[in-house]
TrEMBL record:
It is found in: Secreted, Cell wall. GO terms for biological process: cell wall modification; pectin catabolic process. This is Pectinesterase. Keywords: Aspartyl esterase, Cell wall, Cell wall biogenesis/degradation, Hydrolase, Secreted, Signal. Residues 1-23 form the signal peptide. The active site is at D382. It comes from Lithocarpus litseifolius.
Amino acid sequence: MASSNILKFCLLLSAISLSRTWALNSSSHMKYSQNSSSIGSICKTTPYPDVCFDSLKLSIMINISIEISPNINTFLLYTLQIAIFESEQLSNLLLDAGNSDNIIENQTGTIQDCQELQQITMSCLQRSVSLIQDDAPIKQRKLADAITYLSAALTNKNTCLEGLDSATGPLLPTLLSSIDYTYMYVSNALSILSSQKSHNKRRLMDMGAPTWISKKSKRRARTLKSEYDPSRVLTVAADGTGNFTTITDAINFAPNNSSDRTHIYVKQGIYEENVEIPSYKQNIFLHGDGTDATKITGNRSVGDGWTTFRSATLAVSGNGFLAQDIYIENNAGAKKHQAVALRVNADFVALYRCSIIGYENTLYVHSFRQFYRECDIRGTIDFIFGNAAVVFQGCKIISRFLTSSQFTVITAQSRDSPDEDTGISIQNCSIVAEEDLQSNSIRVKSYLGRPGREYSRTVYLESYITNFIDPTGWMQGPNNDDEGSKTLYYGEYDNDGPGSSTDGRVSWPGFMIFLSTSCQKRLQKAFAKPLERSEGHLNPQMMMKDNKSPPNLAGSVMYLQGDNEGRSYPTYSDHVQVIDSISQQLNQAYKSIEVEAMTAMRRLEFAVELGFDRVVLRVT
Ligand SMILES: *[C@@H]1O[C@H](CO)[C@@H](O)[C@H](O)[C@H]1NC(C)=O
Ligand SMILES: *[C@@H]1O[C@H](CO)[C@@H](O)[C@H](O)[C@H]1NC(C)=O
Ligand SMILES: *[C@@H]1O[C@H](CO)[C@@H](O)[C@H](O)[C@H]1NC(C)=O
Ligand SMILES: *[C@@H]1O[C@H](CO)[C@@H](O)[C@H](O)[C@H]1NC(C)=O
Ligand SMILES: *[C@@H]1O[C@H](CO)[C@@H](O)[C@H](O)[C@H]1NC(C)=O
Ligand SMILES: *[C@@H]1O[C@H](CO)[C@@H](O)[C@H](O)[C@H]1NC(C)=O
Ligand SMILES: *[C@@H]1O[C@H](CO)[C@@H](O)[C@H](O)[C@H]1NC(C)=O
Ligand SMILES: *[C@@H]1O[C@H](CO)[C@@H](O)[C@H](O)[C@H]1NC(C)=O
Ligand SMILES: *[C@@H]1O[C@H](CO)[C@@H](O)[C@H](O)[C@H]1NC(C)=O
């Protein structure tokens, strides 16, 4: 049975290439069996309906199981398999592109970026397949993961195209069309997946108790504890007193594809290196002696010919990365345009008490799920940008003066489709300016954000905003089109400080959903109960187990106050429940905020899972 399926599949794949040409043409003359028509109607809503219809027709022609028992899962799998097949062709093309003069880069790193991103896309596709396989209907939790992976894959596409934009060479047209073709299937798969997403908030509860109180997580916490062994910590010291003198050497030494955490302690010192953590170096934990002591600096920039992606001083593609007490800087200077200090395109990444310092495009939250707690982030324009699902908590976000520019802007979130699940969520942060910007804030306008792409999503919640922010708050995208602005979503909720008034905010049609004061009051009231009960949302307070021993974010046990005494406390699902019941009373305008808040909570959940030292849910 299995082998005959494989055989069918091989037939199918060979048919795909043959069918390409006509497949793109013949969509208008489709006939479906009745049982395929529900899939057909889903096809209609995908970004590339023709491609979807054609693969549907093809699948029927080749008579894989879809015909026998049409279901959305098999069709989804099928779409993903085509994407994987095409993706392999694309990877081969990219290898060719790296040879001789097939592609001539204008920005250093273009092809390398594409190659690495393509590898990540491949693994995203494969992981999505393994999540979906044999699981119908797909569980919401797995669905969320798969949506994350495919969103990341689409972000990879865009980043690769950005580099190729200025490239030349004979292979370029073939390469571009292969990228287009491959990612049509990825887009469609994501769209089908996202159509399966439950819009009923109650379903979120089906995900069950937060993992941090689940047995599994307790077991994991114990493992983490027993795993911690100071003699196994790799020490980097610029002065030669450690195992390595550069961080790069330590990363190279770290085991490949490890599911155990690798501790790398970076002693105080200045490390002038571009550190790359490739996707096969997983679960690295980098900790320093503090942001005034352990510094990683670099100076690559777009101005000096690098791609934005490759300009990063610290570049993280390995999942499960953690960092604490480190200063990361790109010191290319204000005149060199984009110059990234930290780029993260890896899943389940958390940074704690780090400084991320630069000018333009300082922090590239490229893709996947990320969490930043009590970090300082400093820059001029679009200095938090990218397409991750990212939460900032308790961070200090500092805008800097740029002499050559009439404006500064904090975020440039670049979500590209309604199906992705990405966005920037800034909670309990302070939004401030360096002195020279503050004193020039009449002349130089500063904004909370502007769109990187059409479906840009950014929310500021419960943060303190000083008055250097222009009353309009948000800046239009470079295309200045109101059309795109209908698909954006920017929100502000319960912020404080002289720059937080939403009275003068932009009001382009469909562009912003701002809560009127009365709405805010109602929402505040609605949130009041859970807020009081837990001092904010599920606010983990991270405490060092022992300030003297090496900081061990990941090395010790998670702890829930109240757990020991057997007291009950509001859990994650309590929150969801409360919000859920409130949601029915609220109108459309603030539903999105709730989603954000809930998403924020879910993301905290993974931060906790990652092993932040102690997590205390304060209950009063
Ligand atoms: C596809 O359609 C275009 C225009 O409709 C036509 O010129 C072309 O010949 C068609 N190709 C095939 C393979 O049918
Ligand atoms: C569709 O599938 C159902 C059960 O899977 C079957 O009873 C029905 O006859 C099928 N309809 C057609 C038109 O094939
Ligand atoms: C399609 O699959 C069914 C069930 O496996 C089989 O009975 C039928 O002959 C197949 N049709 C074709 C055209 O291969
Ligand atoms: C190549 O890069 C230079 C600067 O690095 C830029 O001036 C030029 O326009 C670029 N060429 C293309 C084709 O984009
Ligand atoms: C690193 O240095 C420590 C202390 O000198 C030592 O115990 C440990 O074995 C070294 N690790 C490696 C991998 O060399
Ligand atoms: C890890 O993989 C890289 C790339 O394949 C290889 O060069 C390196 O030697 C491997 N390192 C270890 C520690 O296995
Ligand atoms: C890491 O694991 C992946 C998937 O299992 C494999 O494809 C890759 O070759 C491994 N990389 C290294 C350097 O071992
Ligand atoms: C960039 O940093 C390197 C060391 O990392 C240094 O050799 C080089 O001179 C610096 N370039 C500039 C323009 O500052
Ligand atoms: C908010 O952030 C600050 C750090 O800026 C932190 O001290 C405080 O505990 C946070 N508040 C909550 C409720 O998490």
